[in-house]
Amino acid sequence: VAPSPPFITPHFSRKAVTDNPEPLPHATKKRTHTMPPTPTTPAATGAGAAAAVTPEHAWPRRMVRFNPRSDRFHTLSFHHVEFWCADAASAAGRFAFALGAPLAARSDLSTGNSVHASQLLRSGNLAFLFTAPYANGCDAATASLPSFSADAARRFSADHGLAVRSIALRVADAAEAFRASVDGGARPAFSPVDLGRGFGFAEVELYGDVVLRFVSHPDGTDVPFLPGFEGVSNPGAVDYGLTRFDHVVGNVPELASAAAYVAGFTGFHEFAEFTTEDVGTAESGLNSMVLANNSEGVLLPLNEPVHGTKRRSQIQTFLEHHGGPGVQHIAVASSDVLRTLREMRARSAMGGFDFLPPPLPKYYEGVRRIAGDVLSEAQIKECQELGVLVDRDDQGVLLQIFTKPVGDR
Ligand SMILES: [Fe+2]
């Protein structure tokens, strides 16, 4: 899609979200993660695909960015995101087909694990793990995920349906990250263990039943995922171009306390800059804050509902249907979002993911005004055909689209 070699940036958008979004022609944006329009079905975890192209000149110029580099421990990147589910093969199969992320590793009965069935999907640096409990009476020593609890997983699935249990970060030292986090006020979830082969592993509570998992390992390891997992080769698998996680968003009842907790133990800074005027929350029904690590490659946005607005807050709807706080959406980056979308849309009706309805045609007149110097007319037409949203700020042009909720709740 890019006229010059593409680079990926986190995505930005205005805070207010409407059903028929209009690009903002002037600098009233608060830099934040992008929210999907209010869904017409109960909120559940969704996925956005995003790609950015280099601008020829910065626009707008009034943004102020500040990075205090205040991390309490060294975080390198997202490592994986784990869903707890009732049947890992079924959930993983659907995501693999929908996202073009083939099975890359597994730990289950076939590898001698009688505690949990886990399947790992990969596309580029994107790694989705799906884990389900086996029946009671298994040999606990065979589990490859030491923190796994079959009872907790059953409760989790009953309470939340298919949902994210762990957001895993690759850190320099998992034990050190755990210690620094607990010193900074984190509630421990699983004390550090050495998994062997140089792998460290620990967990702290994040929000609701979601944990932040720390994984450390040597560079250039030949372990396919974590020790205990066996690699799966898929020579014929199709990749749709998805490359990595961009951000993973949590919905919480109260932003201030949740953000203070997470920022307090991670040291992550607020990844947002206010310009001359903030965009009102009257329409969006939410307040949002993005927490970022030093390198700003790990973004953890948080949303809270705002009550008393014209339309019911989609965050409140999520909290009720999901059964409390949880991961609302996952943004995944693509090197070529139009290609990725063609691949994904081709599978929507056959068990893949479906997308939110496209904006009205007049939206793309605005796109020509704000991004006509970066995107060709053919690219803008393709964005319109595929329903891609276009935003621009001082760091580039962002192309993105939102799936409909990918689960029931
Ligand atoms: Fe987002």
Automatic annotation (TrEMBL):
Residue spans crossing the bilayer: none
Localization of this protein: Cytoplasm
Cofactor(s) for this UniProt protein: Fe cation
Region of interest called Disordered, as start-end residue ranges on this chain: 1-54
Boundaries of every VOC domain copy: 77-228, 244-404
Comp. bias (Low complexity): 41-54
Assigned keywords, A-Z: Cytoplasm, Dioxygenase, Iron, Metal-binding, Oxidoreductase, Phenylalanine catabolism, Repeat, Tyrosine catabolism
GO CC list: cytoplasm
Domain of life: Eukaryota
Pathway: Cofactor biosynthesis; prenylquinone biosynthesis; Amino-acid degradation; L-phenylalanine degradation; acetoacetate and fumarate from L-phenylalanine: step 3/6
A Gene Ontology biological process term: L-tyrosine catabolic process
Entry's Gene Ontology molecular function annotations: 4-hydroxyphenylpyruvate dioxygenase activity; metal ion binding
EC number(s) given by UniProt: 1.13.11.27
Pfam families named in the record: Glyoxalase
Family stated for the protein in its record: Belongs to the 4HPPD family.
Protein name, entry field: 4-hydroxyphenylpyruvate dioxygenase
Organism for this UniProt entry: Aegilops tauschii subsp. strangulata (Goatgrass)
